[in-house]
Amino acid sequence: MGLANTCARCTFTNIHRSLNQAIIMFKASQISTENILDRSDGKRLFSNQLIRDYVLENSSLKEFYKYDPNLASFEQIIADKSKESINRSVLVNVLEEQYANIEDAPPNISLLNDANTHTITTGHQICLFTGPLYFIYKIITTINLAEQLKSNYPDKNFVPIYWMASEDHDFDEINHAHIFSKKLVWDDFQDGPVGSYDTKSMQSVLVAMSDVLGEDANSVEIAELFKASYTNHDNLADATRYLVHQLFGKYGLVVLDPSSNKLKECFADIMEDDLVNHGTYEKVTSTNTELQKRYKLLVNPRQVNLFYISDGKRQRIDRDGEGFKIGEKSVSKEEILNDLASHPERFSPNVILRTLYQEKVLPNLAYVGGPGEIAYWLQFKGAFDNYNINFPMLVLRNSAFIITKNISEKMKKLNIATEHLFKSTDELVEQFIASAEEGENSLASEFIELEKLYDKLKVAVEVMDKSLVDSVGAEKQKALAGLQNIEKKLLKAQKRKHEASISQIENIKNKLFPGNSLQERHDNISQYLAVFGVKLIGELMDQLDPLAGGVTVLEEGG
User: Fold this and answer.
1) Which residues lie below 8 Å from residue 146, measured CB to CB, with a gap of 6+?
2) Does residue 192 form part of some domain?
3) How many independent structural domains does the chain possess?
4) What would the DSSP string read from start to end of 430-490?
5) What tens digit of pLDDT does each residue of 105-154 get?
6) Element (H, E) at 157
7) For residue 438, how many other CB atoms are within 10 A of its CB?
8) Residues 248 and 114 grouped into a single domain
9) Which of 129, 297, 434, 464 is the most buried (most CB within 10 A)?
């Protein structure tokens, strides 16, 4: 293992060496949140009204979170979190064990022993090849926020953490990646927590990735980095830690696998309370009762918010009278509590308890998440209050478009400004035709004149014979309908005239909104690393402001 890791590290070093010779420049611009929400495709980013109200700072939501997402809030957060007792020695020991086979482990792991050190955390599933782009943006937001805090509070330390969701068991959610419009699938369901999945069967999907990326220097080096990550490690969790470390370790990111027995011992009291007293269920249910009066909610609590890991399976724990059921097996209260005391690693929090687990074992100040995550975190504050765990600041991750030079030039030619990107395809087509035809794709002025003509006629007819007024109204509607029909035919004719340009507009939208989604929710980072090289990571770090809001547009060649 040591020799394999050393060779893989040499490969990555070579990537950096070759990329240092190139300079990548992007022109950055920002689309405001308000602009996005006003546009037809804005719902693709903010589909839930709950997150819309959060980013717009709707006062009605204030009771469901603790801190406003800005730098000024951190002085109070630091003071509040410092009152809690965190077992730092256990945390550091676990991280040192998990990084034992990585020769250049982040030096800031040891800083976590210091009471003046705090964390900024994001969490995510361990998707194939890192999954969609937004995973990269979550990590960058986390790192950049930690760096901003260090500038504001130089006497303290801030460690960015990636909380690796190694115990998730929904393989279909993590077994694929979209690279250059190709969907690559790791087709090897093994059951149980995905972090323990054996990576030996990944050879075919790694070959497919290499084929899709191509044979130029950047592509080959990137494919080798991914190959080294997955073939030199026995399971998906270790492979993901190594890959994320190669991309972000030099920026101080620390990857934490929460499946640790030692960490779960620190959380055992809350897991026991969840089993016996259902405190989480009661508090989240109470919050949901209030929120669901106005919002569609994403998460519903269960009486028991834990899974049980055994024999390669992760099964839900359900209350069954005075006892419990794990799958089809009945377990007494005494048995399950004895098991928890002896083997806390067998108990796995669900999406609700995971948030409490994270904040219980980390000296954490803020959680960085996507729109959906922030929306469901807003359901949990009551549970945090119940266990006297400080509710962290909720920071919406950065969102971005990466626009290649080719697409950028087409946008300029078609008069598509970056602030127009969330307009629908039809709106962009009509906008282009109006510009190309000098505004003559609409018969608006003719409709106004027609309305005036019939209104004047109605006045005249009413004086002569009131019985004819209804006939005038009917004729008016026929005339307006006829004019509408002419307008539609005119637009169709103009679309035929500009067919090539319209096709380019559709292509641009398909590139930035593939599969009617967002680029960041579809494309994998590897295709952009193949184009721009690993230095792209540094460019993104430089351009993304963790608290800016909205969407950052990065245009190549700016």
Assistant:
1) 120, 158, 159, 160, 252
2) yes
3) 3
4) HHHHHHHTTTTT--HHHHHHHHHHHHHHHHHHHHH-GGGHHHHHHHHHHHHHHHHHHHHHH
5) 999 999 999 999 999 999 999 999 999 999 999 999 999 999 999 999 99
6) strand 157-165
7) 7
8) yes
9) 129
